[in-house]
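Continuing from the previous page...

OK, I double-checked the sequence for Replicative DNA helicase against my notes and this is the correct one:
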Amino acid sequence: MEESLYNLAFERSVLSSIIFDPSQFDDFDAVLTPEDFYLSAHQEIYRAMMSLAHRDLPIDEEFLRKELMAKQKFDERVMVDILTANPIANTKAYVQEIKDKAIKRHLLTLTTEIKRVTLEEELTGTDVVDLVEKKLYEITQSSQATDFKDAPSIADETLAYIEEMKARGDSVLVGVDTGYAELNKMTTGFGKGDLVIIAARPAMGKTSFALNMVQNLLDKGKGVAFFSLEMPAEQLMLRLLSVQTSIQLQRLRVGDMNPQEYKQLNDAVDKMRRSKLFVDDHGSVNIHQLRSKLRKLKSRHPEIELAVIDYLQIMNGTGGKDRHLEVSEISRGLKMLARELGIPIVALSQLNRGLESRADKRPMLSDIRESGSIEQDADIILFVYRNDVYLYKEEKEREKEAISAGKEFISKYVEKEEEEAEIIIGKQRNGPTGHVKLMFQKKFTRFVDRPTFGAAQIVYESIDMKPAVMNLDDENVEKISMPIIPF
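Thanks. Re-ran it with the corrected sequence; updated structure tokens here:
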């Protein structure tokens, strides 16, 4: 390999600097990986340094020798070369040079891989492009993924996670904040790598519910990517501004505001200018295009913590497949992308109209269009349900029938400023199912937590002490099974 792709003197100097001043290792550990070193012996020495540091052992010649000899990786000549190399003061420039050359080597390897898959593998052009983009993303992120994780590393990472959770105290939130207290309690937030489906019939407010969660994250300085396949970005912004200002959406659309409300609007617009919201409102996108766009955006803006797709059934398939196969490809692709990027992906979904014929119109998993693969791939499935939507429809039907029969119609339906809404948890891979009650403010297309009255207590379903939550102020108390957390 050409010398322009490695510098052994730089590698020796960096390793020498760590041995003579181990306190620097944390700085190196945050940037360098063993694979960034060209010489395999240097890789093994750096890997041994990582092992010693993570076990709080000294990083010196004796401990390194012992660690390497135990793995039969010790090379006396290489160690002498490192110990005789001059430690460096300006390590940043040396590390950057090592990192830069490693990237070039990875890219050179990738060109060979591209040639192989193009000529030897029976892949479509789109699949090859997707593979290349994925590899490029891994290179730019300095991915350390391996085929397997060994038991010690898994155990250490799990213990670190438990200690982090313990340090939070009584907080129920583990993942991304949903913006709703009771929903956070039941889900502990959306986890990294989760595929979350929000499903509802038209007019139930699934887009509004998703936007309310988005607004909550933006208010906390988090980044959000939003793929709007149904409405332009300006309409999304109008909804967000209505939520922020409490100015009716319809009045915002026509500019019907008094001076005080205009000031509120300008303040909200200034706030949104500073937010980390990224919207793609091209109405036509397939899973490959979405994956490519989100990878690029995440690499440029690592602060992005959530991606939303509105909505799943509008996404295009690839290759002219049967629609059920296309939806399966899309849902699986979204799940894998969520894991790859380490963020939750929220996909909105329509429901079959068949539920309209049931007496109880609360959605079930089987009501999701092309539900098989979606139900399988999703980690969490939430249904948005507002009974008032059906009450209003029934009232309109009665009015139509009365008019057609020439009878007087007296409306019994009273339109409310706030309607009760249910968020039904139809599936949760790592938690309970059940429902959370919210209030929906129609004028602002805003879901809010219900005011809490009375006390809440833990009840137990059986002798095995599985806890369930019961709100004493509910008319119809619903017990929700909660998992035991071992200590």
